[in-house]
Design a protein that fits this description.
about 180 residues; six-stranded antiparallel beta sheet
């Protein structure tokens, strides 16, 4: 009787760990569009991204715009352009992850197995296995890894998907449209 439940639990944990929130195809917008909204009332921001370069160098910040030859990021130093080539990978944060809360609850659950007596040898590892897979799944399901060939499609996640507006960065030369 317990073997089918154990198998069902393992399959559920694997399904949760392999879930994904989205991909690069955002041609269908979720929800219904709202009209008559003042632009000043819309706090639009680009998604947070991590750009990995050859050699392990990693850049991170808000994705401002994507051009043919460069990516604009808002970093701690300000708005900076980075050349598209050479880039190994870009990771886009689609949503905030609750992996910390998941790991905390799993830790409390595992600690509670002390009260299970000799069944601790079964329930402890079960809590550890489900906690690890849930925490990893919580992180992976909120991130999108983009290959170098798909970098032009990153504009969908930028604050300015059509490119930087004229005068946004007067001190930096922008590429002509």
């Amino acid at each position: 009787m317990s073997r089918p439940w154990c198998l069902a639990g393992c399959l559920l944990a694997l399904a949760c760990a392999s879930s994904n929130l989205g991909g690069l195809d955002r041609s269908q917008a979720p929800g219904t569009p709202k009209t008559g909204v003042n632009v000043a009332e819309v706090p639009v921001r680009g998604h947070r991204v991590w750009v990995t370069r050859p050699g392990g160098e990693e850049l991170s910040g808000e994705l401002l715009a994507v051009e043919e030859e460069r990516i604009w990021l808002q970093t701690a130093e300000g708005a900076e352009p980075f050349p598209v080539a050479p880039t190994d990978r870009v990771t886009v944060e689609l949503a905030k992850s609750d992996r910390g809360k998941t790991a905390l609850w799993s830790t409390f659950g595992c600690a509670s197995t002390v009260t299970h007596g000799s069944f601790l040898i079964f329930t402890g590892p079960a809590w550890i296995a489900t906690g690890v897979t849930s925490s990893v799944g919580a992180r992976r399901s909120t991130e999108l890894n983009v290959d170098p060939g798909d970098l032009p499609r990153l504009y969908q996640f930028a604050r300015f998907p059509q490119g930087l507006p004229q005068g946004f960065l007067p001190e930096v030369e922008q590429s002509p449209d």
